[in-house]
Amino acid sequence: MDVFADAHPKLSPAQAVVEANRCTFCYDAPCMEACPTDIDVPGFIRGIATGNMAGAALKILEENIFGGACARVCPTEILCERACVWTEAPIAIGALQRVATDWQMARGMPFVRAAATGKRVAVVGAGPAGLSCAHGLARLGHEVVVYDNAAKPGGLNEYGIAAYKMADDFAAREVEFVLSIGGVRLELNAVTELDTLCAAYDAVFLGLGQAAVNALGVPGEDLPGVRHAVDFIAELRQSAPAGVAVPRRVVVIGGGNTAIDAATQAKLLGAEDVTILYRRGAEQMSATADEQEWAKRHGVAIKFFQAPVAVETVDGALYVVTGTQRFAADLVLKAVGQKFAGREGVAVEGGRIVVDASYATSRAGVFAGGDCVAGQDLTVRAVRDGKLAARAMHRFLEAM
């Protein structure tokens, strides 16, 4: 079995038409209200139902240029599909969105760049927020340079999502598609300084994400055999299956999607015993019920109300100690959240950059969005922030 294969293969054209024709095309559709990027869901589904794939794709990509990624990774079960009026069997909105966006990606960028404005913008961060912003600005005619300290663009889509959710090289191909609008240059392995960028560009967008990871705060968390789950997932994303090995017993600490992704991927890669330890109950996990069920269906055990108090070694064996039990492990993966790494020169509150309704920071000409600002840490939300920030920055640049 290819453990890096797509977990949810796309619908065939015939299946897509059948599924699309289940939609009642609601007026004031609740599914559209539930979409953070305001996609006209009934409109694009009608396009699929009537054979107008180009129209369907345009309705998606006009609002969400990363519609392909979001079709694969969005928690639709708590967003558009949960809002569907077919409560017993919601329309497969995510799967239909994938069909339309994949169709368009195979045919190229449907949008044309506006005439050059002569304005130059720096974007820091080549993840969904930064690239969504860059695309929006470039489409409006501005010249954009995107800086990222990684070797590849894509952010979490490239490095932070389980391989079975975004299989093969899709993340890279989608970035190529997004940037095919023109007017965007990538600077990778780059270290930036905000004062320098502000002096060189007419505006700056910060799509920094949350690059730092939280510590467990318990003795022994730095022992050999203990590592961060995000690093484990990034390694898997960049490795061929034949080159990845996991030990027999894996313990993952955390309750979010990163914990689920790391644990499930470890199990699929051959670990015999994979356990997630979470300090509270199932209802408090940030991973959805569907995500939890996905992990359990693949043989991952989830232990609730197990808060680690220490990691220790006894006679060379590694253990995670909770208030009530000791769990033996050959590998311990910490998935207790990420945090904003900090940025001098803009106001920060509660560990996030402070922005107003137009995504402007406390520094004139500097905007921000995505996981580095307050809000739900979802790919679709980051894309929305980048899109709306680009529009706000366009107004700012026009007024200069």
Structural descriptors:
400 residues; alpha/beta; Fumarate Reductase Iron-sulfur Protein, Chain B, domain 2; FAD/NAD(P)-binding domain; 5-stranded parallel β-sheet; 15 helices; 17 strands
Structure overview:
The chain has 400 residues and is of the alpha/beta class. It has three domains: 93 residues, Alpha-helical ferredoxin (Fumarate Reductase Iron-sulfur Protein, Chain B, domain 2), CATH 1.10.1060.10; 151 residues, 3-Layer(bba) Sandwich (FAD/NAD(P)-binding domain); 124 residues, 3-Layer(bba) Sandwich (FAD/NAD(P)-binding domain), CATH 3.50.50. The strands form five sheets. The chain has a five-stranded parallel β-sheet with strand order 3-2-1-4-17, sandwiched between helices. A five-stranded parallel β-sheet has the order 6-13-7-8-9. A three-stranded antiparallel β-sheet has the order 10-11-12, with no helix packed on it. β11 and β12 form a beta hairpin. It is globular.
